[in-house]
Specification:
Rubrerythrin, domain 2, three-stranded antiparallel beta sheet, elongated
Length: 206
């Protein structure tokens, strides 16, 4: 049985359970925030964030994520180009970490959130347990996509030797950071309670 079936609404601000009074504007009795049975326009907002992230994922992989200048010679590197260089240098563990964090994780998040949205909207046969496990995993793994950005930020700050050697962040880094942030926002905007609504055969407006 869902809390909604018992007439209970959760506040999106302080997470207090409330029982809205009939004929009154529903507000949280703890913080006074406006109550909604489900997050307003959750699916539409999540799709908007997800599609924007998917579009930015293209330049994030095609444009240089950083530019290494050594003795006046510039050497721009994309994400995949950096992975290949690490492999050629014999640093397979580091290459594997970068590949997973920068290629596999963002791709999984984009596909995973899209699958959740599609399954909820189209009422596809997929157990609620599978959906909620996928949602929680997407939420948990999202922060690790920032690994590349942290590494670049550290290198830019540390490698400053004038004309001898320097590292600068490329346009791909900005696009990649935007992809990570947008996918994290998409996971937050998606209301996981829609999973249970869909499973129970009840489909309240979001």
């Amino acid at each position: 049985m869902r809390a909604l079936d018992a007439g209970l609404w959760v506040c999106h601000e302080c997470h207090q359970l409330n029982r809205p009074s009939p004929g009154q504007a529903p507000r949280c009795r703890r913080c006074g925030a406006v109550l909604h049975a489900r997050r307003p326009n959750s699916i539409a907002r999540t799709w908007a964030l997800l599609l924007t992230a998917a579009l930015l994922y293209i330049p994030a992989n095609l444009l240089p994520i950083m530019n290494v200048s050594l003795f006046g010679r510039d050497s721009p590197a994309t994400i995949m180009g950096g992975v290949i260089e690490l492999i050629h240098a014999g640093m397979l563990p580091i290459a594997a970490v970068v590949f997973v964090a920068s290629i596999l994780v963002p791709s999984f998040k984009l596909l995973g959130i899209a699958l959740l949205l599609y399954s909820v909207q189209r009422h596809q046969v997929m157990s609620a347990r599978q959906r909620i496990i996928m949602y929680r995993f997407i939420e948990w793994i999202g922060r690790w996509s920032m690994l590349d950005i942290f590494v670049i930020a550290i290198l830019v700050a540390l490698v400053r030797f004038g004309n001898l050697a320097s590292i600068e962040a490329g346009a791909g880094a900005l696009a990649f950071a935007a992809v990570v942030i947008l996918t994290m926002l998409a996971a937050i905007t998606f209301d996981p309670r829609l999973i249970w609504d869909n499973t129970d055969g009840n489909h309240p407006d979001d």
